[in-house]
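Dissemination and training. As part of the outreach component of the grant, students in the summer workshop were shown how a complex can be specified as a set of sequence lines and then modelled as a single object. The example used during the hands-on session is reproduced here so that future cohorts can follow it. Participants entered these lines:
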Amino acid sequence: MRSSAANAELALLLEVAGTPKPGNVDRQRDLAELRFEHFLAGAVGAREGLELAADGASVGSAFEQAIAGMATQEGDNTQFGALLLLVPLVRAAREDLSQPVAEAVVRETTVGDAAAFYRAFDHVDVGVADPPADMDDLDVRRGSDAVSAIEERGLTLYEIMERSVPGDDVAREWVQGFDRSFGAARRLADADGPLTDRTATVFLSLLAERPDTLVATRHDEATAREVTDRAGELVAADALETDPAAVEAFADDLVERGINPGTTADITAAGLFIALEHEAITV
Amino acid sequence: MRSSAANAELALLLEVAGTPKPGNVDRQRDLAELRFEHFLAGAVGAREGLELAADGASVGSAFEQAIAGMATQEGDNTQFGALLLLVPLVRAAREDLSQPVAEAVVRETTVGDAAAFYRAFDHVDVGVADPPADMDDLDVRRGSDAVSAIEERGLTLYEIMERSVPGDDVAREWVQGFDRSFGAARRLADADGPLTDRTATVFLSLLAERPDTLVATRHDEATAREVTDRAGELVAADALETDPAAVEAFADDLVERGINPGTTADITAAGLFIALEHEAITV
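and obtained this result:
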């Protein structure tokens, strides 16, 4: 019986191993500056923070530790978004890994959790959008320099996440009861074959469902929409089964254009954790 | 700064990710019953035992825990031999990860360590040769049933390893001061490129150096010799650089014939740990 922290680390590893995962590092593909080995080291480094969450530490402090550990590799940000989903889910698994409990965990976050979240940005360079003008002092890229503004405004981590929707589908999971993450877990259980294949199937189905918010942030809405439309066509044609070369070509094209649907990968990792924890998938 | 236990887990992950690694599961290849995901789960599961070793537990108890954790995946034995090298090396790293300290760690093992080593076989099915007739009661496949015989004979784990050489090159590392493991670490540092490429280079050089004892046990000496000769030709031709297709063809051939040079992979993992710990390679 694997511990929750071990399952969360394994979810990160299975996510990066899933292939083809168009636009992302996978078992077959490296990006120019971001390689498979950076994700392996990121997952290993995150373990200590995940253990803290499993032991009942606050979401913010466990997350900050997980990010500090994840960032002890040379690829910079590998799993920031995934850990922002996994840490509260590991915390929920202490009681019961259900949507209501996960929702309660994030709703109960404090101003202290928000401050720890901001400090986590000191460890790593994360792709985020500009904040609205009236929230300039809360720009996450200011890292720990924004902590006093957070404390003055008295914002909890949940409230920070509320302010990040729309535009960030990791934050959206926080305010919508981890709906897509639990959905991904069900799809992983229903899919066939080795977990690396199932991960690819579910990743593509999530990508077809909603435009990836990291792609929208780094490129634009139109690009994110185009990627989702192409994923949708591949899913409609059951291309992973009937025309795998078309999915591989899509994957190669996104890598060449530097289009990286990282938010979709984050939700895939969260789904893997839930499915492992519920023993809906086994390895 | 990554802990020793984290570096040891990462070494297991980098080892399986290295490709091409002829005959073994790698980033590109699965075997019929043994897949990449089993190795990911094996590495994650071993972490707790590796932490025990880093915290100063005895070699035997840390090893037994590492194997029990490694075995919580469905591929059966993935990293038994690698952990038999990593656990004493992690223990040595508490003081100094040098050949003399590693040698002292294994020489100081006790009868209790030997008993724990035998109990580890209860968790997993390991490919080993028949013992000599006068050592039938010490057959490791008897697992914990052999513990009373061990205790009666008063054999330490080091003495068990001495009796396993020749025929087991993991045991040989124990009695020869981890010579090939430290050599592999130096070669990893001298090689070029991403760590997954360096791992492939060093694996092939180790395979060319000595016939793999797992291949000799599962098949025969002639097969092990043939594999080493072919690896030697590829190394002499610098084939990973000049003719990668030849190495890929060798890898595919070994997988098809079910020839799995697992001992060479174990020593590669030990070399990765030493090189990570010495910061001779970074990720």
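Chain A touches chain B at residues 1-3, 6, 9-10, 13-14, 17, 27-28, 30, 35-38, 40-41, 43-45, 47-48, 72-74, 194-196, 282-283 (CB under 8 Å). Students were then asked to discuss how this feature might be tested experimentally.
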